[in-house]
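Input chain follows. Return structure tokens only.
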Amino acid sequence: TPKIMFIASLPWYDFPSTRRHLDSVYQQLRQQLILAGVDREQLTPQLDRQITLYEQWSDRRLLLSQCCGPDLHTPAGRALKVIARPVFDKLDCPAGYYFSHIVSGSKKPGAHPVIVVNSQSSFSGCVALLKWLDKTGRNYKQAIVSNAHQNSIDRLRSGEADVAAIDAYSWQFLDHDGLEIIDQSETAPSPPFVCHQDCSVDLNILATALEMAIREQGKPLHLTELAAADNLCYPMSIMDRSPPVARPRLFDCSGNNIVDETLPFE
């Protein structure tokens, strides 16, 4: 019987400047798992960058990936099990947490700004921004879904949007010339490392191997350790489930109205 080959990816901060370091983290993880008794023939020789996230998350072969906290409550993410969460050593917040920069272009956000979010299931790009708008008494008149933090930055730079929330850890890897950080969001548990709930590798073995890989190879990524976490660290709050203001008009990058088609929560 052919052996099952696990799927592994580290997609959340996979930028040109970080790619080789992420590959090194995975190679170290692979070696640690082999030493722990996992069959090397089942461990993919390299990170997968082809299979879509939604396909990975629903695949029982998934050994390692990443997601946002709210993703765990989407149809595609409900089969995921949290392994641990990263500690970002350059962020000024408690270990195992992160926050977003609230960012604007040349046009400062007024009382009714056009907002741009990377994804409706993103904490850093969407939920954090909605909470900030609520805290500051703003009510957005239109929302654009950009599909990536860099795309959100580009929408700000072009003047198509007034304000965005950008993951503060990602900020160091992105082209953000010409933009201004105007505020900071509240903190939240950092995006977890996850596996499929039916993954055959013991969760403790996987977490220990990942911790050792991060300690050995994570320094160039400003990752030095993991914080303990499980699915209960990422509850679906009322704010995650429903925006605090009137439902916006949502558009994708082509200007197509997508309100009814892509809301992630049931």
